[in-house]
Specification:
The structure is a homodimer. Chain A has about 525 residues and is of the alpha/beta class. The first copy, chain A, is built from 15 helices and 24 strands.
Chain lengths: ~525, ~525
C-alpha cells in the first residue's frame, strides 16, 4: 500500500489522522494508494507558502513562467505510461480517452506558455505625459494586468487530467502569475498525486519559489470550504456540480474580504432542430445526437440534455430512438455519481408527461456503478412548467421535446436559464427564418453553435467555456482558452513611474515587442 | 414649485405618494424642485422597459451607439447654463469646479464614442476551421464581447455630473450595449433631472429604443436595494460609501441569480514620503499635500487620508501644519455628509495617541453643514493597531504618521487594506532604496503614483480607478477610462455560424477595420 502525502510547496506532509483510498470504479476494489486527509494546519501552511511564493513568482518574466509551464508538460509526459494506467484504473475511462486528454492537458500548458512568450496578453496601455496641458498637466500613465494572488483550484471528476491538478484552471492561474493550491478530487487521487509530483519537480527544476504549487487531499467538502475562506486566497477555480460550486461561491462572497469564484457548474446544453434540416438530415442528426449524449457515459459538461424539435416527424423520433438503443452505457466515474444519475433520471420519470422513449444496451459493468443511457420525451407544456427538466442530469440521458409552432420553440428558448452552449441545427433557409431564435440563444450561452454538437471543446484563443448563471458563477469569463487568464489578473495603473521601476511591458523601449496601445494607437514600436 | 417625475424610458411617471425636495446645502433652504419617490411598480416598469429595450439596443452598431453618446453630450451642453446654476445651488460646489466637471462628463461620453467608432474593444478572436484535422476536425470559432443586459447605476454625491446620471458608469454601460437605469442621488436631484431629460431627448433623437435609459428618484435606500434585486437587472455600478456599496454587493451576490456589483467605495489613498525627497522638497510636498487633502472640501475618492514619513524632520511637520492652517474649510455636499465627517474626526481624536496638529481657517458657511480641514498626527503603533485610522474619512482631514525606520514604513505598507491609490514621493536614490515599498504598494492599489498627488483622475485608456477590497468590490476592473466597458460585457463564442449570422466584427470581411486575433495573429485585414 502506497501512502500519499500532501504536497506543500517543495515539501510533503502527512499530519492528518484520517485516510481515504483510491478505488477502481469498474470493480469497486481499492487500489494500492492511501491518502491522508489534509489537516487545517497543513491547509494554512500551503496558503502561507503560496502567499510568500507569490512575492517572487509575480516578478518572474513571461518567458520564465513559460519555461515553468513547459517543464510541467514535460514532467507529466515523462510519467505518461504510469499516469495513463493509474488514471484509467481510477476513473474507468478508456485508455484512448485518457491519452487524448493527456494531449489536451499538455497542449493547454503549451498554449499558455505561447501566450506568455508572445506577451501582449497584459493589455499594455501607455499615455504619455503632457506637462504643458492647461488647466492641469497630464501625467504619464501606464496600464497592464498583473496576477491577483494565490488561487485555489478544485480538480474536476470528469476530466482527471485536463480539468484537474495541471488542468486549465491551474495553467491559466500559473500563467497569470498566481501560485496555485489544488484540492485533488477524491475520485482520482492517485492520478492527482502523479501530476502533483510532476509539477513540484518542474517548479524545482525551473527555479520557481517553494509554494508556487501545492496539492491537498480530502474526500469531503470541509477542506475546500476552509481553503476558499482562507484570507490569503484571492480567487477560486472550480468545475463540478451546481450544489458544490454554489456553496463555494456563497462562502467566497460572504467572506469579510470577498473574492471571485469561477465555478463552472454544467448545463443542459439545449439543441434546437429546425424543420428543413430535420427533413433533409434527420437521420444523421439522430445519430450524432445519440452519440453526443452518450459520449464518455454522458460525463461531459457540454453533453446535450434536451432537444427541441418540430412535431409531425415520427420518423425522426424513431431514428433517435433506434440510435439510442444502439448505444452502450458504462461505468461512471464514481459510485455517488452513478447513484445521483440514476435518481435524477427517476425523478424525471416521476413527472407526469415525461416518458422513457429508449434505453441503451445494458453492458457488463458492476451493477452499482453502471449507467444505462436513457432517452426521455416530455410534453412541451410539462417541460416549460417544470424547472427540474431544465436542470442538468450528469450522465448519458437527454429529453426530447416536440413543439407545434415556431413560437413554442421561441417560448422554450426564452425560458432557458444560462447554459454553457446552445445549439441550432438548420439549413441556410431555416437559419434565415429563425434569426430570432439565434438572437435569444446568444443571450443564454457562452458558446452558440450551428450544425455541430456541443461536446468537444476546442482549446484556443476564441473559445468561451462559460455562460450565464447557473452555467457558471461569472459569465464574464471562460475556463477554456487563452482568455481564461484574465480570471486571475487585475489591471494596475502606474502614474509617473521612472523607467526602471516599470515592468518591461511598460518601458519606453518595447524590448518584448508586444502590442501596446500608445496614446490611442496599437503598435509594437518603442516609445520615442 | 416644480414637480419632477420619474423618467421611465420615453415616459414620465409620478405614481409615488411621497415627495422630497432639492435643497441648497450652503443655506439649508429648499430649492424650487420637488421629487416624487419612485414606487415599486415604477421601478419594475423601468426594469421591464430596459429588458425590452436591450433586445433592440444590443443590435445597434458601434457607430449608432457612438452617435447616441455624442447626442447625450450635445444635449447636456445645450442646457449648460441652467445645469451649472442648478448644480452649484444643489451641491455648494464652486462654478469653476462644476464647469470643469461638465467638461469631463462630456469628454467621457466622447471617449466612449471614439472607442465605439474605432471598434477593436470587442476583442475579436477568430480561429478558422480545419475540417481535415485528425483525430477530430477543428470547427470555425469566433469570439467577441457583447453587452450583459440592463445595468443599474447609482449617482454619486461628490461628482454630480461626472459620476452621476450621465457619468462614467452610464457612459461605459451604454457603450457596452446595455440599457441603464439610474437611481439619482438625493443630494442633487434637480441636476439629475436636467441630465436625465437630456439623455431621454438624445435617445429619441437618435432612434434608440424606449427604455434604453430611465432615471428614478428616491431619498432612501429601499428603491436602490429593490433595483439590485430585480431579476431583469444584470449588473450594478456604484460610487459612494463602504456601507452603502457593501449593502448593494451583499444584496446582489445573494440573489437567486447573483450579478456583479462594481462598487467604488473610497479609500485613504496613503502617501509615503521618502527621506531624501523630504529633505530636498519638503516644503513643496507640504504645500501639495495640504492642497490635495483639502481640495473640494476633501470630497474626492482619491484624497490622501494618511501620510507616512520619516521622523526627525520637525521642520517638515511644521511646514505641513503651516500649510494646513492656511486652508479653508467649506460647505459640504449635504448635511448628513458634514455630520458624518465631524463625527469621524471626533472618533479619531478619541483614540489615545492621536492628536490634532492643525486646523484650517474657519469660513463663512452655515454652521451645520460646514467642515473645517483638520490635520491629525498618530503614533505609529497606535496607527497600526487601530483599523479605524485606516478607514476613509470623507472630507478635508488627514493623519500624519512618523516612522523611525524603513522597516516600520514597510510594516505599515504591509498592513494596508485595498486602496484606489498609493503614492510615493522620492528622489531617484530614494526609489532605488525603496523598491520593496513600491512592490508592496503595487499589490494594495489600483493606481500606483510616484511624485504626484492622487487627487485628479485622468480619463483615458490607461487609467485604473479601482483597487482591491475594500476600495472596490471588484479589483479586476476600473470605473474610469475605456477599460470600464468590460464591466458590462461578456465574451461569446460563435461556432460554425454562417457569415450572415455573425456580427460585422466577426465576418470574414473586416468592414470595420478593427484589430482581430486571427489564428494567433493580430491584424486588421480581411480573412481570405
Amino acid at each position: 500500500m502506497i501512502q500519499e502525502k500532501q504536497i506543500i510547496g517543495f515539501d510533503f506532509s502527512a499530519e492528518g489522522t484520517e485516510t481515504f483510498a483510491s478505488f477502481n470504479p469498474a470493480t469497486g476494489a481499492n487500489n494500492d494508494y492511501l491518502f491522508y486527509k489534509v489537516s487545517n494546519a497543513e491547509l494554512d501552511h500551503a496558503a502561507v507558502k503560496a502567499a510568500k511564493a507569490f512575492q517572487q513568482y509575480r516578478k518572474k518574466s513571461g518567458v520564465e513562467k513559460a519555461i515553468f509551464l513547459e517543464a510541467i508538460a514535460e514532467a507529466i509526459l515523462a510519467n505518461a505510461e504510469t499516469l495513463i494506467e493509474v488514471c484509467c484504473n481510477e476513473t474507468a475511462l478508456p485508455k484512448g480517452r485518457i491519452e487524448g486528454e493527456l494531449g489536451r492537458t499538455t497542449n493547454q500548458l503549451k498554449m499558455f506558455s505561447s501566450l506568455l512568450r508572445e506577451g501582449s496578453w497584459v493589455d499594455a496601455r501607455i499615455e504619455t505625459a503632457l506637462p504643458g496641458r492647461a488647466p492641469v498637466p497630464k501625467p504619464d500613465l501606464r496600464f497592464m494586468h498583473i496576477g491577483i494572488g494565490p488561487v485555489v483550484v478544485f480538480g474536476a471528476s470528469n476530466f482527471p487530467l485536463a480539468f484537474s491538478v495541471a488542468g486549465g484552471d491551474t495553467a491559466s492561474a500559473l500563467a497569470a502569475g498566481c501560485p496555485v493550491i489544488v484540492k485533488a478530487h477524491a475520485a482520482h487521487p492517485a492520478t492527482s498525486a502523479i501530476i502533483g509530483k510532476a509539477i513540484q519537480q518542474a517548479a524545482k527544476n525551473t527555479n520557481m519559489p517553494d509554494g508556487v504549487f501545492s496539492l491537498l487531499f480530502d474526500n469531503g467538502i470541509d477542506a475546500g470550504i476552509e481553503l476558499v475562506k482562507h484570507p490569503l486566497i484571492k480567487a477560486v477555480g472550480f468545475t463540478g456540480s451546481f450544489k458544490a460550486g454554489k456553496a463555494l461561491f456563497d462562502a467566497a462572497v460572504n467572506r469579510p474580504v470577498p473574492i471571485p469564484v469561477y465555478a463552472e457548474m454544467g448545463s443542459t446544453n439545449p439543441v434546437f432542430i429546425l424543420p428543413q434540416a430535420l427533413r433533409e438530415r434527420g437521420t444523421s442528426i439522430a445519430a450524432g445526437y445519440a452519440a453526443s449524449v452518450t459520449l464518455g457515459v454522458g460525463q461531459f459538461c457540454t453533453n446535450p440534455g434536451v432537444m427541441i424539435y418540430p412535431e409531425g416527424n415520427p420518423a425522426f423520433q424513431h431514428a433517435v430512438k433506434n440510435e439510442f438503443e444502439k448505444t452502450n452505457g458504462g461505468v461512471m466515474l464514481a459510485p455517488y455519481i452513478a447513484k445521483t444519475y440514476s435518481s435524477e433520471v427517476s425523478k424525471r420519470l416521476d413527472v407526469a408527461g415525461v416518458e422513457q422513449l429508449a434505453q441503451g444496451q445494458t453492458g457488463m459493468g458492476s451493477q452499482d456503478n453502471y449507467a444505462n443511457s436513457v432517452l426521455l420525451v416530455a410534453d412541451k407544456k410539462v417541460y416549460n412548467q417544470n424547472p427540474l427538466l431544465g436542470e442538468e442530469v450528469f450522465g448519458p440521458s437527454s429529453v426530447m421535446v416536440e413543439v407545434s409552432t415556431k413560437q413554442e420553440m421561441l417560448d422554450i428558448a426564452e425560458q432557458l436559464t444560462g447554459h454553457l452552449t446552445c445549439t441550432v441545427f438548420g439549413t441556410d433557409e431555416d437559419l434565415a427564418n429563425y434569426v430570432d431564435l439565434i438572437d435569444i440563444l446568444e443571450q443564454k450561452a457562452g458558446r452558440l453553435i450551428v450544425n455541430n454538437f456541443p461536446t468537444g471543446v476546442e482549446v484556443c484563443a476564441a473559445m468561451v467555456h462559460g455562460g450565464p448563471f447557473p452555467a457558471t458563477t461569472d459569465s464574464r469569463t471562460t475556463s477554456v482558452g487563452t482568455a481564461a487568464i484574465y480570471r486571475f489578473t487585475r489591471p494596475v495603473c502606474y502614474q509617473n513611474l521612472p523607467q526602471h521601476l516599470l515592468a518591461p511591458e511598460l518601458q519606453n523601449q518595447n524590448s518584448l515587442g508586444i502590442f501596446r496601445l500608445v496614446n490611442g494607437t496599437l503598435h509594437q514600436q518603442d516609445l520615442t
